[in-house]
Design goal:
Pfam families: Sf6_terminase (PF20901). The chain is mostly helical. The chain folds into three domains: about 20-155, Homeodomain-like (Arc Repressor Mutant, subunit A); about 155-200, no CATH class; about 245-279. The protein contains ten helices and six strands. It has helices at about 20-35, 40, 50-60, 60-85, 105-125, 125-130, 175-190, 225-240, 250-265, 270-279; strands at about 95, 100-105, 135-140, 140-145, 155-160, 195. The strands form three sheets. A two-stranded antiparallel sheet has the order 1-2. Strand 5 (about 155-160), helix 7 and strand 6 form a beta-alpha-beta unit. The radius of gyration is 44 Å and the shape is elongated. The N and C termini lie far apart (about 135 Å). The model is unreliable at about 135-145 (pLDDT under 50).
Amino acid sequence: MTTEAEIFPPPVMPKGRPAFTDELFQQIIDRMTEGEGLSEICRDPEMPSKTTFLRWVEKDTGRQRAYQGAREALMDHYAEEIRHIAWNDSEDTIKREGKPDLCNHEWINRSRLKVDTLKFLMAKLHPKRYGDKTELLVANDVDAPRSYDVTAICWVHVYPMLRADGSMIKPDTPEYHEAIQRAAREAHAQGLRETSVGFKLADDRPPPPAQVTFQPDPIPDLTAEAWSLLSQVLRMVKQTIPTDDDTPPEEIFRVIREALLLHFREAKIEPASLVEAAE
């Protein structure tokens, strides 16, 4: 019995990173100019690692200038992203059937975080255009300031806008966007980072129901002598009548009246009149 040797194909070796070429370097620069970050590009298997690319840049001043220009172009792309985020109001409100719309604070706060993050990166990576200072000093010449244009970001809360004749300005029209831009420019001139335009509609929800409160009658205005006499009569009634007695007040006042009449022998007074006087 004979056996034949089994032949196995050679193992597939993992493909290594590509070697440096000017064409590959230019591809990375072009992709950064179009809005892709360097880390995102270098995760592509067809591209070199980020460490390798930075070594390429470090060895040549021409590549350094090209890389710096690509980073600045990437910051311009971020500026366009900020504009897109700021104008996207598709999720600003939560629609509710048969009820007033609710403000989507989570969406607005997330948009604000995105814009603030992009602004931070732009100011750090391209300070000449997007930094907070409007004047930068020329290298090796601290006495010669150079001015640059700076893009300022201002949050504008937009409410329904009306013309002078009372008609409403329709959204997504040139007049609508111009009013927002004008409000942003005025806020920037005043050093504000946030402003509003339009008229905020009043809340149409009904007010809470009024609460029923107990309002007792005011205490009668009596003299000190009258209060003393009234206090003595009340004390006498409490000390004389048993605590478990349920005689109505009218009957008690009738007994007191008859006792007084018997003592002083005065003219008879109807009990009802005495009760009304006591009340």
